[in-house]
Predict the structure.
Amino acid sequence: MDLELTGKVFVVTGASAGIGEAVVRLLADEGATAVGVARKPLDGGIAADLTDPGAARSVVDTVLERHGRLDGLVNNVGGLDSRSGFLDFTDEQWLRTFELNLFSAVRMSRVAIPALLDTGGGSIVHVASEAARFPDKSIVDYAASKTAMLTVSKVIAGEFGDRGVRSNVVSPGPTRTRLWDEPGGFAEQLSTQFDLPVEEAVEHFVREVRNLPTGRLGTPDDVARVIAFLLSPLASQITGAEWAVDGGALRQV
């Protein structure tokens, strides 16, 4: 399907791996210019630490200097550190988590919206998480930051919709990104928890613990396809919405 993205320019944060990397690749395949942002330099991208309050302005200014326009933004950068429970999280941990997962997206959106308005409108997609609606004691700070993103997106949608700027949230469920497969990652943690080899532990998690209707973990490409659609003109009537890409994990009404 042609997403009608040829010639459009997008910024994708957290683009070094996983969902962000998949979005950059897919947008390029669709004929768009996708500028990836990550702490480490990327080919054709921008190196920036988005917890730096001045980084958002620098990123958008650089994109406008290089390409002359901005048509969309993907607020994908994020991360988490699990703890034993609520009492184990310090003020510093809460602040770091919100700086990375929420404040970076707020700053990027605040700087990107005027540029989108200058091109007649555009689309912002914020990557949240199933944790926003299914929080766990071990990632309470991360879950809270993602819940806040739902509110931010709806406010942007309501305020700027009549000027052509759309804002939506994509909430992945269990998705096999680097957080799963890195040393000490989720896969190894499940292996230890269930006393099973890694792949058997993942299968047990999918089919017995979470009972995912699709019978598998999601992939970055699964999420990237939804993000690309929401960025495209084909989704022109969709704003202020949350799209769950979770294999049916949260079967809520």
